[in-house]
From TrEMBL:
Name of the protein this chain belongs to: DNA polymerase alpha subunit B
Highest taxon of source: Eukaryota
InterPro entries listed in its UniProt record: DNA_pol_alpha_bsu
Location of the protein in the cell: Nucleus
The keyword Nucleus is assigned to this record: yes
One Gene Ontology term, aspect cellular component: alpha DNA polymerase:primase complex
UniProt-listed GO biological process terms: DNA replication initiation
Keyword Nucleus: yes
Length: 114
């Protein structure tokens, strides 16, 4: 993700790229074997995760994107000073397990500055 994306563009990036393709990362680490011939058949996930945590250089945020709570806690440290981290409290509604409409879990989240 580009550091100079506008907030709306970064959320579109999450919706269109990160959520359907959140594993494996591209390019992968050198020690990770990825069969790119099978990548399209098996790496596209048909479900959206309930919670997606992606620390990055971008400004911290917590957003609901297509039913997924996306959390970017920012960096824990910034040079010699403290940065930010995320704190989550999640309570899943048991009635959602019975085939009801998918919604984001009940989540209380905050980004804490160090």
């Amino acid at each position: 993700m580009h550091l100079h994306m506008k907030p709306k563009e970064s959320l579109q990036f999450y919706r269109k790229h990160c959520l359907p393709n959140y594993y494996p990362l591209y390019p992968p680490a050198e020690e990770m074997n990825v069969d790119y011939e099978q990548f399209q058949a098996y790496a596209q996930l048909p479900v959206t995760p309930d919670i997606f945590i992606t620390p990055s250089e971008l400004r911290y945020f917590i957003k609901d994107v297509i039913g997924c709570v996306c959390v970017n806690p920012g960096r824990l440290t910034k040079g010699q000073v403290g940065g930010t981290y995320g704190r989550l409290f999640i309570k899943r509604d048991a009635s959602l397990e019975q085939g009801m409409e998918m919604r984001s879990p009940c989540a209380a989240a905050e980004v804490v500055k160090i």
